[in-house]
Amino acid sequence: MGISVLAFDVRLARTESQTIVVPDDFPTIQEAINSAVDGDTILVTIGIYYENVVVNKTVSLVGEDSSTTIIDGNETGHVIDVVSDNVNITNFTVRRGGNTMFPDLDAGISLNNVKGCKISSNNITDNGCFGVHLLNSDQNTISGNNLTRNAMYAIDLTTSHNNTISSNAAIFNANIGIGMHVSSQENIIMGNMIISNIYGIDAAHVSENVISGNYLANNSEIGIWIQDYAVNNTVIGNNVTGSHYCIKIQEQANYNIISQNNIGRNDYGFYIVSSTQNSIHHNNVLSNSQQTYVALGSVNMWDDGYPSGGNYWSDYSGLDQFSGPYQNAMGSDGIGDAPYAIDVFNRDNYPLMHPWSSFSYDWTVDDDGPADFDTIQEAINNAADGDTVFVKAGTYYEHVVVNRTVSLVGEDVSTTIIDGNDTGHVLYVVRGSVNVTGFTVRNSGNVHWPDLDAGICLNGTTGCVISENRVVDNGFAGISLLSSQYNKIAWNNVSDTGWGGIHLMNSSRNTVFDNILDSNGQQLQWGGVE
Q1: DSSP assignment letter at 74
Q2: Cα–Cα dist 365/18, whole Å
Q3: Residue 405, burial from CB neighbour count under 10 angstroms (0-12, 13-18, 19+)
Q4: In this structure, what DSSP letter does residue 12 have?
Q5: Which three-class secondary structure state does DSSP give residue 498?
Q6: 216-255: buried (b, 16+ CB within 10 Å) or exposed (e) per residue?
Q7: What one-character DSSP code corresponds to residue 32?
Q8: Count of H helices and E strands in the chain?
């Protein structure tokens, strides 16, 4: 009787995720993806990888260093084509995608019919069409990327919903910073810096999106463009400056809310054509060459009723002697007695006498009067993350350490003074997402090393905004950034500093613009800066 012996090669499927290193384990990123299973991390070490990568598994792609870990598409197709859900891509330079617009929609990073992906902390540059493009893709996050010199759009959404586009810098792209098209809905465009493109944000044939808290500067043609049946969108809390058209609404873009925006130093503040029933209120419309143009037949609502009020117009010349919904009761109420007339069909019935502020102050500081605290430091020590500290006019001799995520707001930049008495840092910020505005900051110490004394020092921070301060007579540096990223330093007057007006050390991806630097040892000084 014969005996048969059967041999089986049994290999158990891998169930635990692992980290695959390129090029140690595989020479190319694509080979690593091909060998990966869902849940794996692919760590790519420093180098230039000439590839067109297809991500068809749920993996995390992590570059060793965003400046020197480079994926180069060699000017063809998508550099990275994501076709699987829940993919993470972080810490790469992604460059030189193709230039085919239709039908391929070539992009540095393409998300095609996917959900739950996160694209963060990448440099996306020199792509022939799009930097990042989303097609039929929902619930993704595009955050903290630096997008430059892309030929069409830095970021574009086509028929894509419920995505969050936040804290990106879209600067010096050849056409549009951020676009939404073809029925894209319920997306959030929030906290981005969009500078020196032709168009800042373009929303066409979309609905129910929120455009909030973005800074748009020097986009040559249009800052924010709402057009072509874009309806029921909310544009709130943006700063828009330096464009031909600041906010342009046209071609049946109806029922949108435009509120709490700062609209200043543009050729046109609002430019509205063939669009009606938009609610436009609580905006600060400041020193535009022409504040508003409305084509005949476009009838919109320019106030939020009484007592909420309308907009602040820098050229409004009316008085505030009366109050009430008909402005016929004695006593002022912060609302102009006469409407601000745009044309016979459009007028702001309740123009604001002072700029609109969305700040609700959680704590007040006054060194010589009734308030919650006598010193700024006491207020910060008692504040919670997200609080706003309002500092009344006065001179505060303090060394303030900001170790909570708060907003510090001075009552008046000329008369709200923090004085360091010639020692140490005056304001020392060691927490991210801090806002400081409206102060004179003076008389720091003059110790160079190791302290790098400054009027305002940011150490290890991200997402801070230092704006509209007067930083003067400081011993070493006016404003100093140490190991800090993604901060904004804007509209400050920095003068008479012993060494550097604005000093950056080991800091990258910060935006420094529209500051006045005068009579400093060196106006701008940096070391170890990307």
Answers
A1: T
A2: 53
A3: middle
A4: P
A5: coil
A6: bbbbeebbbbbbeebbebbbbbbbbbbbbbbbbbbeebbe
A7: H
A8: 2, 58
Burial class (CB in 10 A: 0-12, 13-18, 19+), 98: buried
Residue type, 492: N
Measured distance CA(252)–CA(11) in Å, rounded: 62
Residue 288 class from Cβ within 10 Å (0-12 exposed, 13-18 middle, 19+ buried)? buried
Cα–Cα distance for residue pair 488/391, rounded to 1 Å: 22
Output the six-digit token pair for 103: 């039908």
How many CB atoms are closer than 10 A to CB 441? 31
How far apart CA 273 and CA 351 sit, in angstroms, is: 22
* 57: CB partners within 8 A, 6+ apart: 33, 36, 37, 38, 40, 84, 87
pLDDT tens, residue by residue, 247-260? 999 999 999 999 99
Domain boundaries, the chain: 363-527
Residues 6+ apart with CB under 8 A from 328: 322
Spatial CA neighbour of 350 closest among 366, 339, 334: 339
pLDDT digits (tens, 9 = 90+) for 56-109: 999 999 999 999 999 999 999 999 999 999 999 999 999 999 999 988 899 999
Instruction: Using the predicted structure, report yes or no on whether residue 425 has a pLDDT greater than 90.
Output: yes
Question: Residue 453 corresponds to which amino acid?
Answer: D
Mean pLDDT of the chain: 93
Pairing of strands 164-166, 130-135: unpaired
Are the CB atoms for 241 and 288 separated by under 8 Å? no
26-35's contacts with Cβ under 8 Å and 24+ in sequence apart are 29/53, 29/61, 29/71, 30/54, 33/57, 33/59
Q: SS3 sequence, 129-193? A: CEEEEEECCECCEEECCEEECCCCEEEEEECCCCCEEECCEEECCCCEEEEEECCCECCEEECCE
What values do phi and psi take at 34, rounded to 5? -60, -30
* Per-residue CA distances from 122 to 27, 91, 108, 289, 514 (Å): 22, 5, 11, 38, 26
Of the candidates 131, 110, 117, 135, the residue with the CA atom closest to the CA atom of residue 192: 131
Whether the Cβ atoms of residue 245 and residue 267 lie closer than 8 Å to each other: yes
CA–CA dist 206, 183 (Å, integer): 4
CATH architecture of the domain 363-527 equals 3 Solenoid (2.160)
Q: Which two three-digit tokens encode residue 349?
A: 């019935």
Q: Are 174 and 150 in contact (CB under 8 A)?
A: yes
